Each structure stands twice: as structure tokens, then as C-alpha cells.
Amino acid sequence: MTTHFRSPLLLLVYFLTLNSCSIKPSVRLTLSILTEQQQYRMGGTLRLETRFTNSGTQSFYVFGDELCWNPGRLLNIHVFDASGKEVSGHSDFLRDCLPPPPSRDDASRFIELEPGSFEGFAENFDVRELVPEPGEYDLVVKYKSGISKQWISKYGGPKLGALTIWTSEYPEIASNRLHITVNP
To answer: How many separate domains does the chain show?
Structure first.
């Protein structure tokens, strides 16, 4: 009789384990971009909206000062031509922010993202800043936090240390591919 109950009992334990695993809180950040239109002129302006969405099941914080353009770190825009080759436009200036680290126990510069909520901003780009010539292009934005768990534990203080923060230990995230056409 014990053998008859062992299999169903093991099966019940297996399903309970699966169920408990699936309801554990998760930290997940999704990045998306959109524009008001799909066609632009070389001398025009492209308004790019960037959204950071908490697509997980647990609230967490992002360092708000990092949500700015910085080639090579933080928030980067990548442009690919019709053949898939990465290209760049021409600009008289470099969009480069380097925010100072937060002060000890200062959570005021962090943005809380509850499950399903998002933080977003829009920025205007001169089309020539993004692409070298008229054509078909895909835009992708990537984000990698510049603040580490080690920095937080060493310099952040107990208040920051108690928060769940999106740090550099999380993988770089990439947005959707946004297709645009640029005419002369």
C-alpha cells in the first residue's frame, strides 16, 4: 500500500515545488523605444521616446541619473543600416553624461519601479546625428547600469543597501529594433 501512495505523494511534492518556484518575486527590466513617425528627412528631427519597464514581479530601483546618453556605458543608441552594419552619423558634440555617484544613504536620486510601471523620457536628435546618409535604418538602445552592488555595500550606506537596485551585475539590456526610413 505504501508503494501506491509514494508515486502520487512524490508527484504532489513535485507540483508544489514547481508552483512555489513560479511565484517567487523576480527583478526584470525591459527597455523599449518608439518614435512619432517612421519617415524622416536628413535635416529633420527625430524625437525618441525611451521607456524602462518593470516587467518582473518585484519592485526595485534604478539610479535615475543614469538614464542619460553615454557612449560605451549607461544608455547607448546603436544604428544599423539595411545590411545590418552598425553606422554612425555626424555631430558637433558628444552626448555624454557622467553622473556623480549618489551620496551615502541618499535614495532621492533613485526611481522606484513597481511591477508593471515604467519610467520614460523623450529626447530630440538631429537625424544627421544618427545616420550618415538617406536610407533604411534600425535603431536599438542598450542600457547597462554603472553602479555596482560592491559600490553600494561599500559606500551607499545601510539605507541604499536595504533597497533592491538594478546594478551593473544585471546583464546589459537591449530595446526593440525600431525601423526608420531617412529621405534626402
So the answer is: 1
